[in-house]
Write a structure and sequence with these properties.
binds zinc ion; single chain; alpha/beta; 253 residues; TIM Barrel
Amino acid sequence: MIDSHCHLNDKMYEQDLEEVIADVFSSGIDKVICVGADYFSSVKAGEIASTHENIYYTIGVHPDDCNSYSEAEIEDLIINANKKLVAIGEIGLDYFHNRDNRFKQIETFESQINLAIKHNLPIVVHCREAYGDCLEVLKRFAPLKIGVVFHCYSGSLEFARELLKLGVKFSFTGSVTFNNAKNIQEVAKNLPINSFFFETDSPYLTPTPHRGERNTPKNVFEVAKFVANLRGMDVNELIKITDQNAKNFFKIK
Ligand SMILES: [Zn+2]
């Protein structure tokens, strides 16, 4: 199974990264996408991907770090990327953490969408309490010539349907398994089966029944199991479809 979004480049794995990776690939996980969130974590993601066969990576600056964003620096990383680069991300808008720099966030988001279009790469979007503006921004680029996935989707089903019209895909993390996540569960239950896939966002958002532990990409199976149950499906059947969705999206064989 694929974990389509994790941060093996996070400090929380610094001490035992190789052990974590070995454990992941001996647990039935066959591919992992390591996501950048600023310049340095993007560089690190590229290093991890270049030295591990089944790890791919993304380059991007998260809205929380928009003050450190330099278009030239990020484009330089894209131009000098290794073959395992599969997307630009995570990029987007986060008004939960900070609403005061809204315009700077939008500018940074748009700049990176332009880079993605220029280099023909899909984008991984982080959107928190900023759905209206995210939709506005994406509509400015419509019709979208690149793939767009809303990772860790936590918006409403109604909003998801608006995004579907633009061809957007969705990915779900361990947050769908939380007791207070009825909203996310409703979305995961009702989205068209070809429009979503799974991720862990490790080391964060550890799914039930492992809450309280550091998350690992191998827990992506728990996320799939939970959603399969919601949809009344066999988990392996579901994973077969969602893995193919992820492979198509990121153009991974
Ligand atoms: Zn993430």
